[in-house]
Specification:
With 307 residues, the chain is α+β, with helices and mostly antiparallel strands. The chain is built from eleven helices and eleven strands. Strands 1, 2, 3, 4, 5, 6 and 11 form a seven-stranded mixed sheet that branches. Strands 8-9-7-10 form a four-stranded antiparallel sheet. It is globular and about 60 Å long.
């Protein structure tokens, strides 16, 4: 049986940063943010060439171990076979190890690029299959759903398969991220979580998560109570005490703030007019960045044009 045919032209994929959990929506909620990695992939005659600029340029592998390459390979297997060679160029802007979905961005970039460079790829690997594949590689669907779909996403697994729906966040919402200089491994943060939690805490989080859907999409004035969490943030505190202290300072001042993903970045959900004031909470060792919401999700873009 003949293998797949590939496009001669390179493809460019842009993928957004994401913030998962958003407080009470542990392993379920995700929000796409206006901070992007760009990946350009071209099928070559032979070999593998990987070039990296920006985040991780001095530390990431430039061989088959690179997460974009691994994701490309996994997707090509599903698409019918591997190309003879690959050229991969990554322009990374999403901080690594900070809870902003850098690994999900790499995974989504790889599988979308593989589909785009394969003739007939979308017919073999549709959007549902993309989510399932990204979740299989990442291990959970919250970040990859938001990265693929943009906006505010609710993700779950059903019968072992990943599923997600996308909602439009309120237009007035302005995310501010406080990024510390030191990274934190997701495995470290996840390892601090208990195997069981009190029933009262689980019940409280269920109510807050339901409220957060309303607050994020239609009633931002409810974001402070809606982002209250009892399932994971305090338990992870020993691994990122400065992050938890910043969350508590912001919330005490009435600012809805949460740990972004597994941390240690802090996400504040503000509105126009308050975002600039909120950035002043950043002390020494923090970079405060006001971001836009991403509503497009992962996209295949023309090679020419602005970044």
């Amino acid at each position: 049986m003949a293998g797949p045919a590939f496009r001669a032209a390179a493809v460019r994929v842009r993928v957004p940063a994401t913030s998962a959990n958003l407080g009470p929506g542990f392993d379920a909620f995700g929000l796409a943010l206006g901070l992007y990695d760009d990946v350009v992939v071209r099928v070559a005659d032979s070999g593998l060439h990987v070039d990296i600029a920006g985040e991780g340029a001095d530390t990431l592998a430039r061989d088959e171990k690179h997460l974009v390459v691994r994701s490309l390979r996994t997707a090509f297997d599903l698409l019918g076979g591997q190309p003879r060679g690959l050229e991969v160029v990554c322009a990374n802007r999403i901080p690594h190890g900070r809870g902003l979905g850098s690994s999900s961005a790499a995974i989504c970039a790889g599988i979308i690029a593989a589909r785009a460079v394969t003739i007939g790829g979308p017919a073999v690997l549709d959007d549902i299959a993309l989510l399932e594949l990204a979740t299989e590689i990442e291990g959970h669907p919250d970040n990859v759903a938001a990265c693929l779909m943009g906006g505010f996403t609710l993700a779950w697994t059903e019968g072992g398969a990943a599923r997600a729906i996308r909602l439009d966040p309120a237009r007035s919402l302005v995310p501010v991220v406080f990024v510390p200089a030191t990274p934190l491994l997701t495995e470290t943060a996840r390892g601090l979580l208990p195997r069981t939690v009190p029933h009262v805490d689980a019940a409280a989080n269920a109510g807050r998560a339901a409220l957060l859907v309303e607050a994020l999409t239609r009633r931002p004035e409810l974001l402070l109570p809606a982002t209250e969490d009892r399932l994971h943030q305090d338990y992870r505190g020993p691994a990122m005490p400065e992050s938890l202290a910043l969350v508590n300072r912001l919330r005490a001042d009435g600012v809805p703030a949460v740990i972004s993903g597994a941390g240690p970045t802090v996400l504040a959900l503000t509105e126009e007019g308050a975002a600039d004031k909120v950035t002043r909470f950043a002390g020494e060792g923090w970079a405060a960045n006001r971001l836009a919401l991403d509503t497009a999700g992962a996209s295949v873009l023309p090679l020419a044009g602005g970044q």
